[in-house]
Amino acid sequence: MPPSRASSQATSLRGVKLAIAGKGGSGKTSISGTLARVLARSGRNVLAIDGDSNPNLALTLGLPPGDMNDVPTLTRDLLRRSPGRDELTKSLEEICATHSVEAPDGVTLLVMANPQHAGTG
Amino acid sequence: MHATVRSVVEVVADGPQDVCILDTEASPEHLSRGTARHADTMLTVVEPYFKSMETARRMAALGQDLGLKRVALVANKIRDDSERAAIEEFGETHGLELAGVVPYDERLPEAERARAAPLDYAPDGPAVTAIRELAQKLTA
To answer: Which of residues 61-100 of B touch A (CB under 8 A)?
Structure first.
């Protein structure tokens, strides 16, 4: 693990990390997507991550439905797993450069899985 | 891929973004894989009926088990004061902060049918207005 660059950047304005949980159909994705867009409009640089194996954050962020199939997903080669310690093989900036898509208002979107992978509707 | 997401959230502060929003799995079983482990706040979205509150309670407990600094509820699709009161009571019973209350907005299911973002479809509706207030509160 590299020495923490985070510590020097960790002002009160950095590193707001929100996880949105909730039952399917509760509206968690509507809230996630709208929070991301609203914060981006207020000048924040927002990373939105769809960590649901039935992904639909892209739509709620306002990406055109026709673009959905082109959204890249996170691939296995991005992670080196070892006991007690997982490590990304690339920097987050590199991962975003190759694996993210830009949503309206400049939100950067990373998607964990393909819709086809989904278990539930 | 859950492990990759977990690691991405861990290193967010090293990247160019200053806010990270993780939309997690819809089931507690999957949530327990710990994708949210490195978040600092978990918002559990809850509707005012028993099954939703039961799921929210289990998810909030998982968030606390993961050691997150703040685990709070966001009430959603609230139609009236009695529904709001039911969520408030639920929060008090389980010692969970209620971070926001988002009213029911018929324009949101319409937006979904139209395949549009709530923010584009109903920007001044009660739901988006409440989410805007929540965003301000979370980053104040």
So the answer is: 63, 68, 74, 76-77
